[in-house]
Write a structure and sequence with these properties.
Elements lengths: L5 H10 L2 H11 L6 H8 L3 E7 L5 E7 L6 E4 L2 E7 L6 H8 L2 E8 L5 E12 L3 H4 L4 E15 L32 H4 L8
Antiparallel strand pairs: 1-2, 1-5, 3-4, 4-7, 5-6, 6-7
Amino acid sequence: MSMFHEGNRELQDAFGSRALADRLEQRLSRERFSEEDAAFIASLGFFFLATADAEGRPDCSFKGGPAGFVRVVAPDLLVFPDYDGNGMFKSLGNIGVNPHVGMLFISMGDAPKRLRVNGRAEVVREDPLIDAMPGAQLLVKVTPAAIFPNCPRYVPSLQQVEPSAYLPTAEGPPVEPKWKSFEMFADVVPPRRR
């Protein structure tokens, strides 16, 4: 099955890029993670997750954690933890009604790189992997349908100065963000689950 629909094809034809798009899909797109994909994903401390609700309304979310928080556990399975957040559950709620997701992994710096993963996701409450991920309250499992590199030429040269102080660790309880104690929210903030 092609990764392109009529909307893609219309623009490809208008700009003369259908043959290029087909070649890129043919040569670079795959349905299974390579060892290189797994190593690249494990080296990162963030990615962007695109989801949509049952009516197709999109949402995009930044997901961050310690390097290695996203894991390729099999050639056809990627997992990542859900950490305590603002409680809206926009991304995970969308997955519950529409399992199609898009993930964008980006490395910035001396050797910029991007990897896109499109697939089907499910949210899992009980799984042995959750216990191996400090701070995880849920687990998201993604079965890829299309994995492909993305041209990094517009990725800026940025460097991480230090990791977020809020990253979960096995050493102790996470730091609570200040906004949870603001008067307008304090009375409705639920306790952490794990």
